[in-house]
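Database export, one record per block. Field names are fixed; values are copied verbatim from the stored entry.
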Amino acid sequence: MKQLPPDTVRLLSSSQVITSIVSVVKELIENSLDANATTVDIKLENYGFDKIEVRDNGDGIKAADVPVMAMKHYTSKISSTEDLERLTTYGFRGEALGSICSISEVHITTKTANDDFSTQYILDRSGHVTSQKPSHLGQGTTVIVLKLFKNLPVRKQFYSTDKKCKEEIKKIQKLLMAYGIIKPELRITFTHNKAIMWQKTRVLDHKMAFMSVVGTAVMSSMEPFQHHCEDPERHTKRPPASIVKASSAEFSILTSRG
């Protein structure tokens, strides 16, 4: 037996984190939501194999964090295992960007409120910054993923049929619809090959968000009810970190009449 070289280990571990096109989109969107974005634009070219772009108007990445922003197991979201008991973010493992770098080419453009201008960074397979230059983009972060799975032909072969590729587009749309419902304040635009596939505007509450996503016909067959819990920590079991948690003990739920 022999030890695998670091590049091979990195590639194999990345393929376990990033398993599909929709998983790339999911990880990047959740980074945007953790950065308090209210606008997210997702653009795909050739089903995402040629290009995936996720642009947001969030907080941006601080200059001090740039050197390690795509390094595996670096994260600003937790500091210890105790933090796992009170997660308020989607991401916390510090694996997503590093894994995406291992299986594609990644460019990140970012600007915080304190920066005079945005900067574009080009990353290598290890997540290190190899070059940078000024950019014209406003506050927020734009991640561009090029040549996805270029060094994982087996993974790319899974999408060898047009049917598989179209199914992935539908999965992405369903994912965005879910975020659109739980985030009323979020504006989303999803584009594939310059054609708008799905979009949602900002709305005031979850009921309006649900209506904007599923339509009035579905809403007409739903019925609202309220649930109140005095002590949510004592009476409810904490869901996994990947499931969105209610911010209040009192909330409204829509349920089917039939």
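Remark 1: The CA atoms of residues 72 and 95 lie 5 Å apart.
Remark 2: The two ends are 60 Å apart (CA to CA).
End of record.
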